[in-house]
Amino acid sequence: MITSRFFHRSFFGTILAFAAIGPAFSLSGAETTTAPAEGELTNFLSRDPKDVGGQIALLMQEVYGLKTELIASRFQQEYAGRIHLQQVWFATSTADKETIPAEIFTPANLTAGKKYPALVFVHGGAHIQLTPQWFPWIEAAVQRGYVVIYPEYRGSSGHGETIYENNYGVTDLADVLAAAAYFAGKDYVDPARLGIFAHSRGGMVELRALEVEPKRFKAAVGIAGLSDLVSFMGYKTEARRQDITSQKNYGGKLPDKNLPAYIAVSPAFFVEKIETPVLLLSTTGDKTVPYQLHNKRVIEALKAYGKTYDEQLYELAPGGHEFPFADTPEARDSMKRTFDWFAKYLSP
User: 42-46, 62-66, 247-251 — which is least confidently predicted?
Assistant: First the structure.
């Protein structure tokens, strides 16, 4: 098996760059959040497409799937004997009865009968999946006595076209909440000591999860999180705006034509519902999720509503939006603050 990092970057970069210049395509089989009628069929990608667009769509899904296997293999090689990786599919809570992939990380040797504090790790991005940049965070969590679930909510890549289909703020939220419920039911998990940790888009899902199920989590940490999809749509590129607009929840309409849909998924507007102690970490100079538009507003609302929270704003942390994944003093400090916060409320 080829495991060089150069291969990973050059091979996937070449394939995805090729896909980006091909004809436009859309993945069929969009998620259904109402119960399907008996006999209703899913339209999967053709496994023998004759058109170039279909060939590129199929190639992208095959490449993403290969990437999933390589990343899992790399983790197992690096942490063999220390951390056990289990890949699972759990049932989501939506009426379509979809199943969602996730990775579960536990000590290599679980203590029989022990109930561990647990963390739900929520990645960000559009069509992202487990990546090696999360490995140090997973290792740190398990070393400190936690077990971790990393849900690949709908909108993630590497698990087929049904999971790839995006619906910002809707199916991602449903899937993460379902992952938390599923994990809390494991015989080695203490459901009274469940926390959630998120980055970027994951921060948006995390905060909405705290608002929708305020009793579920006992502690939360969000880094460079998105909190207002209305403002987000105001400064993103036209291609990104159109991608989000085309998703089922938005009906092809920008906020000026369908504002309620964008407000409903934006946690900045519902902070009063949060009961969980929250730590928010940010940096100035974030070019993806600017502090002034997102975390700062949530922090001000948490303070105004008398919530339990803490914050840390770094000054131009190297890596910008991706600063927690670098090997820098700011990243190390963010990790220390994160696990100090969880230790305070989850008692590992």
Answer: 42-46
Is 149:86 a contact under the CB 8 Å cutoff?
no
Neighbours of 98 (CB within 10 A): 20
pTM: 0.87
Helical packing angle, 135-143 and 329-346, nearest 10° = 40
Strands of the sheet containing 99-107, edge to edge, are 83-91, 99-107, 147-151, 116-122, 189-199, 219-223, 278-283, 309-314
d(CA 184, CA 145): 16
SS3 238: helix
Please state, as a whole number, how many other Cβ atoms lie within 10 Å of the Cβ of residue 29: 15
Lowest mean pLDDT among 57-66, 68-77, 193-202: 57-66
> 214 with 342: CB under 8 angstroms?
no
83-91 and 99-107: which strand pairing? Answer: antiparallel
Residue 92's nearest CA partner among 179, 208, 189 is 179
pLDDT 10s digits, 317-326: 999 999 999 9
- Which SS3 state, helix, strand or coil, does residue 47 take? coil
Give the end-to-end CA distance of the chain in Å, rounded to a whole number: 37
Rounded to an integer, what distance in angstroms lies between the CA atom of residue 189 and that of residue 146? 9
